[in-house]
Amino acid sequence: MRRIDKDERAHGYVPGDNVDDSSSKMKLESVSPLLPPPDDCEHSPEDPISQNGSLFGAVFNISTTMVGAGIMSVPATMKVLGIIPAFVVIVLVALITDITVEFMLRYTSSGESTTYAGMVGESFGTLGSLAVKICVITTTTGVLIIYFIILGDVLCGNESKGITHLGILQEWFGIHWWTSRAFALLIVAIFIMLPLVMLRRVDSLRYSSAISILLALVFVAICSSMAFSALLSGKSESLRILPDFSQVTSLDLFTTIPVFVTGFGFHVNVHPIRAELGRPAHMIVAVRTALIICVAIYFAIGFFGYLLFGDSIMPDMLVNFDQNSNTSAGRLLNTIVRLSYALHLALVFPIMNYALRANIDELLFSNKNKRALALDTPRFVSLTLALLALTYFVAVAIPNIWYFFQFLGSTTIVCLSFIFPAAIALRDMHGISTTKDQVMAIVVIILALGSSAIAIWTNMYGSGADQSSTIM
User: Fold this and answer.
1) Which has the closest alpha carbon to 61: 348, 345, 310?
2) Residues forming beta bridges with residue 165, ordered by sequence position
3) How far is Cα 179 from Cα 128, in angstroms, rounded to an integer?
4) N- to C-terminal Cα distance for the chain?
5) Which among 36, 80, 252, 298 is placed 20 to 30 Å from 465, CA to CA?
6) Distance of CA 442 to the CA centre of its chain
7) Three-state secondary structure call for residue 159
8) Which of 91, 81, 59, 146 is CA-nearest to residue 298?
9) CA nearest to 259, candidates 459, 9, 29
10) Is 27 helix (H, G, I), strand (E, B) or coil?
11) How far is CA 41 from CA 5, 38, 105, 458, in A?
């Protein structure tokens, strides 16, 4: 029996003793689905657990998870960081994201678990698995509530510092009971969100995810066209290439990092998407393709938004569009931007809900003898309806609760995106980490903990500079 080389383990290839190398590779490429089939049935095209997910569907679903509500906060980071440092930070966070996702994929292939919590549990036991579930549930619940709140603000307006901002419905039809926040969000929840969250396979969301990314590109196109128009007419704002330390401190720079960490934090959906791909090797291709798409979208939105509004850019760029709608063309663009953004969020909602539902089910119904959630219709429907109702009622009852979740980007999302995957590589329960892997894992943990601590401290006790807001 030949000795197993560590590099072969690091890449998930461990030859068998009595089989040839090709058969060993085939065995390692086979991955158990997240939702195992019953013993007495076979996969069919309609089977919600069959591994026939498409590569393009994975790219769209990953991209949609990343391009959430945070796109409106990216231009404000340009004001704090400057153009060049902002681009460097975007690329750096994307690279770290790629490293940590690769850790997750390799340790999932080497282990027996097919969920995020289960993978961490293999390295850190029950407490580690529970920590992941709590972080996922806290993060995704907060994000979904925030999506509802932003939708309510866009459609029905809000009141901030004594100033009333009318929503699209109120501008069109006036203030009535049927243009209120509660009724408008109920209609959105029933007719847009409910049909999508009832889909049992994450790959089934690929079309809605594709539309969501298309709407983000529409927003980029609008911003870029308005910025070029302003540039040609001499009305564009001057850009800050580097930070202006007369207005911000070095600590203020760290408050922008949670915005990008939140934006690139799709780790909660790595396992569901991977489980439905016919070939797990396609997952890393989908991840890197999606990262390239999102880096381009984030930088384009940040650059053109900053070029258009300059230092007057707000933490939520929608406010800037609202302030520049005193002409008919401006009002039309404002309406298009807000409507496309609202629909974009409504289409992002189901992909985030998928991770929340899966982790709550894993927490409450961890009995291995129970049927998979997608195959247990009463459990699936009741849990789906309960979560949709909960997020709706909290968003309507406490529309300012999103302040409570501002620190998610510096806490639970950092743990899910960087700390947990790096800790698994350091623990190395399967003996597949190379020295390079462990060095990178240590660097990732130091960067994550250091930047998060500084960001939290600055947000709580900072200089009071106009900082970018951590919006999901």
Assistant:
1) 348
2) 158
3) 45
4) 52
5) 298
6) 24
7) strand
8) 91
9) 459
10) helix
11) 39, 6, 28, 56
CA pair distance 348, 344, nearest whole angstrom: 6
DSSP 226: H
The secondary structure of residue 57, as a DSSP letter, is H
Task: Say if CB 254 and CB 80 are below 8 A apart.
Answer: no
> 427, exposed or middle or buried, with CB in 10 Å at 0-12, 13-18, 19+?
middle
With beta carbons less than 8 A apart as the criterion, state whether 133 and 414 touch: no
Show the beta-strand stretches assigned E in 311-462: none
- List the beta bridge partners of residue 160: 163
What does the alpha-carbon distance between residue 313 and residue 77 come to, in Å, rounded to a whole number?
Answer: 10
Distance CA 64, CA 352 (A): 9
Look at residue 163 and give its three-state secondary structure.
strand
Per DSSP, the three-state class of 158 is: strand
Q: How many CB atoms lie within 10 A of CB 325?
A: 18
Q: What whole-number distance in Å separates Cα of residue 81 and Cα of residue 396?
A: 35
Cβ within 8 Å of residue 411, ≥6 positions away:
452, 456
- Cα 219 off chain centre by: 18
Per-residue pLDDT of the chain (472 residues; tens, 9 = 90+): 444 454 444 444 444 444 444 444 444 344 444 444 443 333 433 344 556 778 999 999 999 999 876 788 888 888 889 999 999 999 999 999 999 999 999 999 998 888 999 999 999 999 999 999 999 999 999 899 989 998 998 898 877 666 667 788 988 888 888 989 999 999 999 999 999 999 999 999 999 999 999 999 998 898 888 888 888 887 777 788 888 887 777 777 877 888 888 889 899 999 999 988 877 788 999 999 999 999 999 999 999 988 888 888 887 787 777 665 566 776 788 888 889 989 999 999 999 999 999 999 999 887 666 788 888 899 999 999 999 999 999 999 887 765 655 666 668 889 999 999 999 999 999 999 999 999 999 999 998 898 888 877 776 765 444 444 444 4
Q: What single DSSP character describes residue 415?
A: I
Which residue carries 């850790």 as its tokens? 103
DSSP-assigned states of every residue in 251-284: TGGGGGHHHHHHHT--GGGHHHHHHHBSSTHHHH
The domain at 50-461 falls in which architecture? Up-down Bundle (1.20)
Instruction: Give CA–CA dist 414/452, Å, rounded.
Output: 8
Please state the length of the chain.
472
